[in-house]
Write a structure and sequence with these properties.
With 289 residues, this protein is mainly alpha-helical. 62% of the residues lie in helices and 4% in strands.
Length: 289
Amino acid sequence: MRDCGGIGRRKSLPPRLHGRDSHMKRMTCVLAFGLSCTTAFAVSIVSVRDEIEIGRQAQAQVRAQVPEVNDSLVRGYVASIGRRLVASAGGPRYPYSFSIADYKEINAFALPGGPVWVHRGAIDISQNEAQLAGVLAHEIAHVAQRHAAEQLTKATIANGVLGFLDAVLGGGGGARTARVAAGLFANGLFLKYSRDDESEADRVGAEIMRRAGWDPQGLVAFLQILRAQQGRDPSSVEVFLSSHPSPAGRVERLQSVIGSARGRRDSDRFQEVQRRLDQLPPPHRMPRG
């Protein structure tokens, strides 16, 4: 079920509702029906346009705080993989972008509306191109499936955050949206998804890989590397595990979905990028606390 009587969809409003009266009535409808509607309906409270704007504001905040890998070869390569995966993804036409955090810790995350980040540590431990593509495909799937929009709406309904509703339903403007993005980012809401969301991102990400021509077993192999890394160097996967489920169960579930699917595993360009990363100054450690 993707709807709940059309509540929260601008095009369903009758012509006589305009201006502040229209806005307040829509907010009242959302509050009245929010708790009785399914999580899937909740997506309609946050429009794609609002989701993109919140993601744009959050991206600016991340960029202000996170060191980036600015090497043109590495950045261009990661972006090229991302674009090819996006071409095989469903969902709205988001303005996807791909950035590399110059952190040693293994992690990746997606912001609302298209920005995708991968840590340098995740590229370093990848052994072939399909594994890196699997990391990016998983994050693209979060965006394409609108997991952030669902999460933002659930938080809004649970906490009664009227200021956020005011922003996303058109009454807040850019400044209000920026404040909303700042508050939600500060609370880590963009970086943590439910187990169901993670499972769906694995499944959809594997399908995106298959359509784009990569071996979806690459995602499985990356999770297996994480599991081994957890035993060798727990601190390197601590950040990843704080925002993702344990790799163990994900491997079994993915294997059952992927079956015998195969595709591209590696490229000379991936190996060239790995050598370039080895030549760059060592990555930063993430700040603690």
